[in-house]
Design a protein that fits this description.
Length: about 180
């Protein structure tokens, strides 16, 4: 099964890739994250992923258009539920790319993070699955959290301390 994996960052890819490959899936990576702010953070995450993809021999497609304005407008409209907009924006682009590249299914490294809203990611993925007639592969990647963290540290990978959006960064430093 050829799976298009939406990738938010390299550290979240470590366990996710291991689990998918253990199931015999042919994985292709897709980086699309206009939510990441500032742009220097976006570039750090992209460069770290490109380096890691070489190690993994992971085919990687990158959409580096960085449509920050669309992300900010949508996130502000959603208010405290901004994550819903963010998930939809990134997963929709991934489904579009999956259809274009004739993938057999879509999943995301967002399912690895214990800090993400899994039920909302799953619901969004399933809705888009119906819209694009493409399976959304929901996996419980969080069980590999510790393993992925340890391996990313062993590899001296750049590890960020927030999801990437400016709102998350504000919460990290200033509080809710």
């Amino acid at each position: 099964m050829k799976v298009l994996l939406h990738i938010c960052c390299a550290p979240c890819t470590v366990y996710t890739m291991k689990a998918l490959r253990e199931e015999g899936m042919e994985v292709h990576g897709f980086f699309y994250n206009p939510n990441i702010h500032p742009y220097t953070e976006f570039l750090k995450r992209l460069e770290t992923l490109k380096s890691y993809a070489k190690i993994l021999l992971l085919p990687l497609t990158m959409d580096t258009s960085y449509d920050l304005e669309t992300f900010l407008k949508g996130a502000l409209e959603y208010g405290k539920d901004r994550c819903l907009f963010c998930y939809r924006m990134r997963l929709e682009k991934t489904f579009q790319k999956a259809v274009e590249t004739h993938a057999d299914g879509v999943t995301t490294t967002l399912l690895y993070s214990k800090y993400q809203r899994h039920d909302d990611i799953k619901d969004t993925g399933e809705e888009l699955s119906r819209k694009y007639d493409m399976p959304f592969i929901y996996k419980e990647f969080r069980k590999g959290w510790k393993e992925g963290v340890e391996e990313s540290k062993r590899l001296n990978m750049y590890r960020q301390q927030y999801c990437g959006c400016i709102f998350s960064e504000k919460e990290r430093f200033k509080g809710g």
